[in-house]
Every structure is written in C-alpha cells, then in structure tokens.
Amino acid sequence: MIDPALLRTFLSVADAGGFSEAARRLGLGQSTVSQHVRRLEGLVGCVLFERDTHSVQLTGDGETMTGFARGILDQQDRALRYFSRPGQRGRVRFGVCEDFLLGQAADVLGRFRGTHPGVDLELSVELSEVLHARLAEGDLDLVLAKRDAGQGVRRDPLVWVGAPGLAPVPGEPVPLVLYPEPSVTRARALNTLRRHGIQWRIGCVSERLSGLRVALQAGLGVGLFASSVVPEGLAPVEGLPDPGTVTFVLSHRGAARQGSAAALAETILSARWSRADWTPQVVPGTV
To answer: How far is CA 196 from the centre of its chain?
Structure first.
C-alpha cells in the first residue's frame, strides 16, 4: 500500500521543480521531503527523479507515476467528499403497483432523488397483493399498492374502461381484460358483476399493465382501473354497475419507520397525487 502522504509529497516536488520549494509549500523539512520520495521510490522499485546540484527532473518512470498519483489522490478525495456530504445514505426496497408508475412515480422519485441523493432504490413492480405479502415476509421496506378498503394515501373511484365506442352487447357475457390472481381490481370486477347477476368471461389476462392496455385498445374487452390512472387511449364504458372505490395504501414494516424508507414515505405523502380531501396516513405493515 502506498501512503497518500508520499504521493502528495512526490507531486509537490514534481510541480515545484525542487525539494526546497516543495518543502516550503508543504510546511515540511527538506529532509522529510527527501525521505518521502526515497520511501516511494523504494515501494515502486524505480528512480522517480534525476537529481544534480542545479536541478531536479522527473525520469520516465516519474512522469508515469504522476498520472497514477493524481488518479489515486483524486479517487481518495472523491470518496471523502462523498461520505462527508450531509443527508441520509442507504437503500430502500420499494414495492409499487403499476398504477402508481402510470401516474406520479416519476415526479415523486425525482423529488426524492433531489433531496436524498445518497439513497439508492431497489424498485419492485408487482400486483398489489403480492407486494403486501412480500412486505409481510420482510422482502420489502415500503409498499405503495392497492387495497380493497381502509385508510391510505388516496381513495379513487373505480371505472370500467375500454376502446372508445366499446359497449356491452345485450345478452352476451361481458368480456373482461384483467390482471391474474391475486389482483384487487380483478376481484372487485368479478364480485361486482356477480352481485348484479351479469354474466362475464375472461377475454384476456396479462401480468403487465402494458399488456392490458394493448388488449383494451384492441377492443378485446372491458377493464377496471382507478380513475386517476386510466391508461391513455381508453374511454369509460357505460351500462355496467358501479364497482365502488379502491384505496392506495402506503405500508411499511416496523423497522422502516425511520431513516431512508421514512424519508421516501414522506415524499410520497407530500406529492400532488395525494388528494387534499383525503387524510394521508401510513399504514403499518404486517410483521
């Protein structure tokens, strides 16, 4: 290992063009400067300066060493600056449903990065019920996902949507375009139609929002979304019963109530996406 002090002394001699001037700039004795250079030459096994009574010149190996020395000291300085910066550091394992990604995710995560540049995010995008289960198992620190009811950061009406102009055909089962189980909106869609005695069939299933959007735009059936996150290019479908509302909850495990996860939760709760008429509240996750 090379002591950074030896490298700094070496570069000072190279820049000053002599040992005496380097000693003055560093506030060291000339003998100490000479000792530092000899120790560095011993470590690397080569002569770094050609010395005579009139001048001090870098050798070829010395020229090469200047590049290494500046690079090593620069890396050290960058590390010290990074870890001396104010603010939190760490990692947050954040689980989020795709509905949120469709809306305010870029704005929220961008603001969080601006205020907490030292915190890294591990983002998981899955069905809400899967995210809640992973939170309970300790795989995630913070989850923003849908629940059938309860308190949360936002409550939205659910709306039936499909390709513009699509309408249920009287006497025919309603074709549905849904997430697979377990899905909050899938369960709500099926339960709503059952309660009203309406026949249905599964026209398309996709684990990803992009797949649902394409299927709906192609007219394969009717989907169910929270009103604030209806994919672009889709329109309300009339003639079906009111599916009610859905709640977006922000859940965490007990250990994540402080630190980086708590800071991300605060950023989400202060986002425009949270309605003024809905009281923000973080819901403790199951432990």
So the answer is: 42
Helix axes 105-115, 259-269, angle to 10 degrees: 130
CA distance 129 to 146: 8
**Under 8 Å between Cβ of 69 and 41:** no
Answer yes or no: are the C-beta atoms of 154 and 105 closer than 8 Å: no
Q: Which CATH number fits domain 156-245: 1.10.10.10, 3.90.1010.10, 3.40.190.10, 3.40.120.10?
A: 3.40.190.10
Angle between helices 60-84 and 4-16 (to 10 degrees): 120
Task: Report pLDDT digits (tens) over 220-260.
Answer: 999 999 888 888 889 999 999 999 998 888 888 765 456 78
Distances (CA, A) of 31 to 28, 34, 38, 267: 8, 5, 10, 57
Strands 90-96 and 119-125: parallel
Torsion sign, CA atoms 221, 224, 230, 236? positive
Query: pLDDT digits over 171-212, tens only?
Result: 899 999 999 988 889 999 999 999 999 999 999 999 888 899
Q: Indicate the pTM of the whole model.
A: 0.60
* Residues 228, 103 contacting (CB under 8 angstroms): yes
> How do the domains of the chain map onto residue ranges?
4-84, 90-153+247-284, 156-245
